[in-house]
Design brief:
mainly alpha; elongated; single chain; 197 residues; 7 helices
Length: 197
């Protein structure tokens, strides 16, 4: 398949996955964070709920971006979709799995708390799932462009003219005494067929 089939989805997955990995560590610089409100503060919950799915989304995006193989690109799309789903459901299941709590949004208003929840988890995850699913849909369908891409030869050879019975070959130089005269292929064939006396 053509590399461009999953390139845009792959590029966007890389950006969103990088956002998911970096925002918990650089968000406190911009007053856009969950507790603990300290830059580059590592917690087990951040590792499992943000860094892991973000890294998986980046890997899936890279596979989509660089692959010409349909199976590899499909793997990239599935990795993106799974990473996005984990952003959505991971926080709700963190207590059940015993991987810690990511904290509470550092916000004075309900609007900012909602924006933080969407930007860190639910909205980010839904967008990643959408991009992964869209890439899977585009890759799983074999289009006319894919068939043309596979059927196009690498180098096209110049077609050779076909000779009919009425054509004469004037480029063949006979050997021996007749080197100055051009003969047609009929003359050559008829001389060979003439019996010797």
């Amino acid at each position: 398949m053509q590399r461009s089939r999953g390139a845009m989805s792959g590029f966007l997955l890389i950006l969103l996955g990088a956002w998911g990995v970096l925002v918990p560590f650089v968000g406190p610089y911009f007053d856009f964070a969950f507790t603990p409100d300290r830059a580059w503060a590592w917690t087990e919950a951040r590792g499992w709920l943000q860094v892991l799915p973000g890294a998986v989304a980046v890997v899936g995006g890279l596979l989509l971006l660089i692959s010409r193989n349909r199976a590899t690109a499909m793997l990239g799309g599935w990795l993106g979709a799974v990473a996005g789903a984990w952003f959505v459901v991971g926080r709700a299941s963190a207590g059940l799995l015993g991987i810690g709590d990511v904290g509470a949004p550092v916000a004075v208003t309900e609007t900012k708390a909602l924006v933080l929840e969407l930007a860190y988890f639910y909205g980010l995850g839904a967008l990643i799932v959408f991009l992964g699913a869209a890439a899977l849909g585009r890759i799983s369908v074999r289009s006319v462009r894919d068939v043309e891409y596979v059927d196009t030869p690498i180098a096209t050879a110049r077609p050779q003219p076909a000779f009919s019975d009425s054509d004469e070959v004037t480029e063949i130089q006979p050997t021996g005494a007749d080197t100055g005269r051009h003969r047609g292929w009929r003359d050559t064939v008829s001389r060979r067929r003439t019996p010797a006396h």
